[in-house]
Design brief:
By secondary structure, the protein is mainly α. The chain contains nine helices and six strands, in the order ααββαββαβαααααβ. The strands form three sheets. The protein has a two-stranded antiparallel sheet. The longest helix is centred in the middle third of the chain and has 28 residues, at 115-142. It starts with 18 loop residues before the first helix and ends with a strand. 40% of the residues are buried.
Length: 295
């Protein structure tokens, strides 16, 4: 009979790596996200580098959200004795994918000891990043501009159940009338990234949570892929690409833990359901949309 893993190990496996690489990628991503923030403010950071200052609120807020997200994963790995790398940030051109980064990740180098550890590590990152993004969104909304009526022609980010509710709670208006402050915009992207990570498929964070709670299952992931494909054909084409990616993750499957029969305790099972609810609340059916006829 197997015994449960201890809640904390004083000597987790060392995380070998090259911290200088992690640091350089972080610095590069700070530069690209700040540049993206300047672009959102209709500035040209390439021709006029001095305008980079205008991108600091967006870039630094987004970096903070991503850093806290990965720190949540990393600290849970330390708690359960799972060998993991420091976070790797991935810089990107400021104009694509509009935020100056493709996100961040940590490399996990050892198997999960059990489903308890799998849940803690999988959910630790999204919950940590979610809280920072939620605060950023609320603070940024209080600094945002409210228009007298929705714009007749514009490119807008869509809204989730949560961001719609926050707009009404903080400003008392429909989100279509709000021009987001840079901090709120970073919070929006942070919440959107959280929802993408929480898609309950494969080895995404949501897939870890789903496996930890229910074990192997393909029904919900397959149903979700079909839903995203429908959204891709009717609302936002980007979901078609995601449907293809998620199908590949389903086919790859999820690796077992060292002690799969050990179920989640009741508090963690409730936490898993709450994590899935967070996915529903932060999901955006149409992340980018064009309103009216642009000139």
């Amino acid at each position: 009979m197997s015994t449960p893993e201890p809640a904390f190990r004083s000597n987790p496996p060392p995380a070998r790596g090259r911290p200088l690489v992690n640091a350089l990628l972080l610095v590069a991503t700070i530069i690209t996200t700040v540049a993206a923030g300047a672009v959102w403010e209709d500035r040209d950071p390439i021709s006029h580098p001095e305008v980079m200052l205008s991108g600091l609120p967006f870039g630094l807020t987004l970096i903070a959200i991503l850093l806290v997200h990965e720190a949540g994963h990393y600290l849970m790995c330390l708690r359960h004795g799972v060998s993991a790398s420091l976070p790797y940030f991935v810089p990107a051109p400021p104009l694509f994918p509009l935020v100056g980064t493709f996100g961040a990740f940590i490399r996990i180098r050892s198997r999960f000891p059990n489903r308890v550890a799998l849940f803690d590590i999988g959910a630790g990152g999204p919950w940590a990043g979610f809280l920072v993004a939620l605060v950023a969104m609320a603070v940024g909304l209080s600094r945002s501009t409210v228009l007298p009526y929705p714009p007749q022609a514009s490119v807008e980010v869509g809204d989730s159940i949560l961001t719609t509710a926050l707009s009404w709670l903080v400003l008392g208006v429909d989100p279509t009338r709000v021009v987001l402050d840079p901090i709120a915009r970073a919070g929006w992207f942070g919440l959107f990234v959280t929802s993408l990570n929480l898609i309950p498929v494969g080895q995404l964070d949501g897939g870890h949570v789903l496996y930890a709670a229910f074990g192997k299952t393909r029904f919900l992931p397959s149903l979700l892929v079909a839903f995203l494909l429908w959204l891709g054909l009717t609302r936002w084409p980007g979901w078609v690409m995601w449907a293809v990616i998620l199908t590949a993750l389903i086919l790859l499957g999820h690796p077992t833990t060292n002690d799969d029969p050990q179920p989640l305790d009741a508090p963690r099972f409730v936490g898993a359901l709450a994590t899935m609810a967070m996915f529903v609340l932060t999901f955006v059916a149409e992340p980018l949309k064009i309103v009216g006829d642009l000139p």
